[in-house]
Amino acid sequence: MAQRTTTRPGADPRRRALRHRRLLGAAFALPALLLLGALVAYPVVFSVVRSLFDASGDRFVGADNYVEMARDPATLTALRNSAVWVVVAPVLLTGLGLLLAVLTERVRWATAFKLVLFLPMAVSFLAAGIVFRLAYEQDPDRGVLNAVVVGVHDVFVEPAPYPTARAREGLGLTGSQADGYTSGELRPGAVAVLPFVGVAPGAVPAAAGPARAPDAVPGALTGTVYLDFTPGAGGRPGRVDPAEKGLPGVTVEAVRDGAAVASARTAADGSFRLDGLTEGTYRLRVPAAVFAAGYGGVDWLGPALITPAVIGAYLWVWTGFSMVLIGAGLAALPRDVLEAARVDGASERQVFRRITVPLLAPVLTVVFVTLVINVMKVFDLVYVIAPGPVQEEANVLATRMWLVSFGGGNDQGLGSALSVLLLLLVVPAMVLNIRRFRKGGDS
């Protein structure tokens, strides 16, 4: 008698249900996969293929674009700047975020503080770049940073009183603004008139009075330093006229045998008096410090500081992001471990270094790697903040790729090679981040 094969009841329905769920899942995933393929996979493949052709895209050149990229000084500068960004910006942001997250736990207004620091994340990179481009202006009247720097500098170093002044030519003073001006030979008891022009109206102090030539004093040299200019084109050059102003605060030296033996500063009416002079001849000298150009501040947008300046703007935007993420990890730490360490006599520094930081290591790693990926793609801030003459010194790989492809270079073969290089540099960080996320999910 033949044995009859039996099937388990419900086996086929289970397989059909499983197949149905898979088809349903594929149907839901298909739009996302199509979108991912159109926006990510296709551009990557196209860029790799395009990098093997010349600028016009008609002639196959193989690896020539990659060889050219390795020889191009501008590309090497961009690669160096990208390395600086990767090393400096994520380290500073992670450190600042950790420090601020720990500090905000100890203040009552922590929420308001976090909100203020996180607000720059709501500002686009374009707007942030414009703000910092203005803040970094060289002119202290426009750039807020140089206004602060110049203000602090002038507190400790007295600025030159009349940086634009120059002596009236042909009236007894010789020299230049760089070397100072010197009069002819004079004997004690003489009165000297030292006329200057080129003083801006705003540079004459409000306390300046009408110029006055003092009387002669035996055994002393007297005189006046004044602005030899009469409104309305009146007056005579080299002569103190009633409408002309004295120049207060000007240092005048009596020089003999090349050395200054006496000095004085002019009063509000421009007059001065040099006493204690022995018999002989002297020359009056107005030193170059009176005409030295004022301190103009720091050249933030110059070739030497442009990359640190742009990184500073980036820190302003992303510090809040780092602080909030690390703060969330800090809030999840087991408080009993921290309290137990304090009860055992650990100082706050020891608690921070040996307990808080090790427990936050996974969060710090995620923040650091995320920032590394982000700085590799930075474009807006560099392009907006760096002026045209120093754009090449500030370039990173993203801006170099855009300039070569669309910003005047019109060489999309080389630009595609740069994009492939950028992709290869970003992929390892992305893979590391994904692995850490998966590891965190499995635990």
Descriptive report:
Keywords: Cell membrane, Membrane, Transmembrane, Transmembrane helix, Transport. It holds the Pfam family BPD_transp_1. Its main location: membrane. There is one protein chain. This protein is α+β, with helices and mostly antiparallel strands. It folds into two domains: 64-148 and 300-442, MetI-like (MetI-like fold), CATH 1.10.3720.10; 166-290, no CATH class. 51% of the residues lie in helices and 11% in strands. The strands form two sheets. Strands 2-3-9-6-7 form a five-stranded antiparallel beta sheet, with no helix packed on it. A four-stranded mixed beta sheet has the order 1-4-5-8, with no helix packed on it. The model has no long low-confidence stretch (mean pLDDT 85).
- Total strands: the figure is 9
Low-confidence runs of at least 5 consecutive residues: none
Total helical segments: 14
**Estimated share of beta-strand residues:** 5-15%
- End-to-end Cα distance, whole Å, is 57 Å
Report Rg: 37 Å
User: Structural class from helices and strands?
Assistant: alpha+beta
Outline: elongated
Mean pLDDT: 85
Strand order of the largest sheet: 2-3-9-6-7
* Fraction in helix: 40-55%
H and E order: HHHHHHEEEEEEEEEHHHHHHHH
Instruction: Describe the main β-sheet briefly.
Output: 5 strands, antiparallel
Q: What is the level-2 CATH architecture name of the largest domain?
A: Orthogonal Bundle
How many domains comprise the coordinates?
Answer: 2
The CATH topology label of the largest domain is MetI-like fold
* CATH class descriptor of the largest domain: Mainly Alpha
**CATH homologous superfamily heading of the largest domain:** MetI-like
Keywords: Cell membrane, Membrane, Transmembrane, Transmembrane helix, Transport
Protein name: ABC transporter permease
Organism: Streptomyces termitum
Membrane topology: Multi-pass membrane protein
